[in-house]
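STRUCTURE REQUEST FORM
Protein name: Ig-like domain-containing protein
Source organism: Cyprinus carpio
Requested output: structure tokens
Priority: standard
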Amino acid sequence: MRVEWFRSDLKDSQLVHLYENHDDRNTEQSQSYRGRTKLNEQELQRGDASLKLSSVQVSDEGRYKCFIQSKSWSDDNRLHWFLDH
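Status: completed
Returned output:
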């Protein structure tokens, strides 16, 4: 299974988090998200691909897209994250 979270509102779509084959694969992750993202593998097995983002910053506000792919299907979802400051 592959779960890819990225920013879809920026000129260069920034990789926020990549999970593939039971492991985080964040070598190409945007520097601004390094060490701040996490997927819960147990929740993922139940169909919950929520991304946990820690140390939230004003610059994190924006549009995010999640792409999920398995051997038998794929799907994507978009969300716009607003920060109240």
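Reviewer notes: The chain has one domain: 2-81. The chain is about 5% helix and 45% strand.
Form closed.
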